[in-house]
Amino acid sequence: MQTLKYHRILLKLGGESLAGVGGSGIDAQQAADIARRVKEVRELGVDVAIVIGAGNLWRGRTGQEMGMDPATADYMGMLGTIMNALGLMDALEHQGVLTRVMTSIEMHTVAEPYIRRRAIRHLEKGRVVIFGGGTGNPYFSTDTAAALRATEIGADVVIKATKVDGVYDCDPKKNPNAVKFDNITYIDAINRRLAVMDSTALTMCMEHKVPILVLNLWDEKALKAALYGEKVGTLVS
Q: Where in the sequence is the domain holding 101, given as residue range(s)?
């Protein structure tokens, strides 16, 4: 019988993971597909926390390019992550997965405010916890929110879900000779400016010794294989 390598994970999803063919909005089928994968992991006995972005709804960078105040644009993005969190919660609960959304921006009629000990208690009771609102502060990405929450809840790993099978030395879509890394150190990822997570998130994971695993969530076998310690994706440690 295989033994699990990771018992508590922080799954980092981009907002685009919920988008339909056009790349924007929330697609019910996409949400259901992600919910199914999360359910399979939860049924293995793994504690699952999720941080999701809002790229399918809004990007703070877009607002800044339009001349908006940067903080205002970022707050709009934070609200977008909460919309995505609620959409994913609904998809999970349709599949019988007990789920809680916790937000760094208080909105009591919509979700619970983020309290670290309460989040850990939800995980211990077998609930999936989705963290919305990023860190609650402008100028910080949802990558940084993922690193922060993973550290706070004692996650064994941050799993960054992408649509490629790992981290490459350059864009494999543009360069067919791109080389994939199986393992790389935090420092190398930072120095090479690889598209793993932003430097703040990488530094936080490095300081607290939280490994980052980048994999293709849309590969049916990848996530489960990773949880059992099989060589999947790219491990940053």
A: 8-236
